[in-house]
Design goal:
Number of domains: 1
Mean pLDDT: 88
Low-confidence stretches: 303-309
Strand content: 15-25%
Strand order of the largest sheet: 1-2-10-7-12-5-4-3
CATH class: Mainly Beta
Radius of gyration: 19 Å
Shape: globular
Number of helices: 7
CATH topology: Jelly Rolls
Length: 309
């Protein structure tokens, strides 16, 4: 039996009142409890999901020199290739056994350089997927706002220029290593919401509130959604960002695509009034989403604001 709830999003995009009321309760329970949930009925066609996964396979199949030429750097605005075993999401553990390609797309920037000119259709598929995820992530903030006693459009102006990123991820087959590395060490996500598309290899594990690790098995056609640290700060820990990790599969590769919806860089992340008890102070000092995200990237990649200057 799944410990992670499954939420049907049918009616979310159209604004059906009954559907929004149902979803508000279901999303609220998931965000306050395990911090993870599956979403079905999201309206993203299966051929779109197949196309973006196929392009991820094609990218990671490129020669290493090609990928290295796209390597992430301090001035790349969190876009670029992250090499195999170069990232540690859990600083107290070992280097992650994975490689990734971070993509950020401004839908209005029609004149940008191609991401991967050698891969036919890559840019078009990525731009289409990015825009669909951006819309879905923003729509999911509507039941969240309702649950928190806010106007349904509260997050709209805080997500109209978001620091959204998605990552193509490749985990090689598990190997026996002395350091006992995970594909992705235990971590929480940094921003507001994550929407994860996975293949059928499995390997994602979520930590329950009692400390036990449970599997988050693949569910065809569904996304796995979880809240991040910024939304936890906004809700004064009413919502919980949950540690999760990835174990590399035996005898096969694993591919996934994670979309991270982070608020506008200048959005002030501070406790929502309904989340602070009378007579108590917020748990966190206000901070812009951009400054908070920069501090987290510094921990992961070693980049600082000075590096980016």
């Amino acid at each position: 039996m799944l410990d992670i709830p499954v939420i049907d999003l049918s009616g979310l995009v159209t604004g059906d009142p009954a559907a929004l009321t149902r979803m508000t309760g279901e999303v609220a329970n998931a965000c306050r409890d395990v911090g993870f949930f599956y979403v079905r009925g999201h309206g993203v066609p299966s051929d779109v999901l197949d196309a973006v996964m196929a392009q991820a396979h094609a990218f990671f199949a490129q020669p290493q020199a090609y990928k290295d030429a796209l390597k992430i750097s301090a001035d790349s605005d969190n876009q670029g290739y992250v090499g195999l075993r170069t990232e540690a999401l859990d600083p107290g553990h070992n280097i992650d056994d994975k490689e990734a390609f971070n993509i950020r797309i401004d839908p209005l920037d029609r004149g940008r350089s191609p991401l991967c000119p050698e891969l036919p259709g890559f840019d078009a598929v990525m731009a289409d997927y990015f825009s669909r995820m951006l819309r879905l992530g923003a729509d999911l903030h509507r039941p969240i706002a309702r649950d928190l006693g806010l106007a349904e459009d509260y997050f709209d102006l805080r997500l109209d220029r978001p620091m959204a990123t998605f990552r193509l991820l490749h985990y090689p087959p598990a190997t026996v290593r002395a350091d006992g590395a995970f594909g992705a060490g235990a971590h929480t996500d940094y921003g507001n919401l994550t929407l994860l598309l996975t293949d059928d290899a499995g390997g994602l594990e979520v930590q329950r509130r009692d400390g036990a690790w449970i599997a988050a098995p693949p569910m065809p056609g569904a996304f796995i959604c979880n809240i991040g640290d910024c939304l936890m700060r906004w809700t004064n820990d009413i919502y919980r960002s949950t540690p999760h990790r990835v174990t590399n599969p035996q005898g096969r590769d694993r591919y996934s695509i994670a979309f991270f919806l982070d608020a506008n860089g200048d959005a002030m992340v501070e406790a929502i009034p309904s989340c602070v008890n009378a007579g108590e102070s917020p748990r966190y000092a206000p901070i812009t989403a951009g400054d908070y995200l920069a501090s987290r990237f510094a921990q992961t990649y070693g980049f600082t604001q000075a590096d980016k200057a």
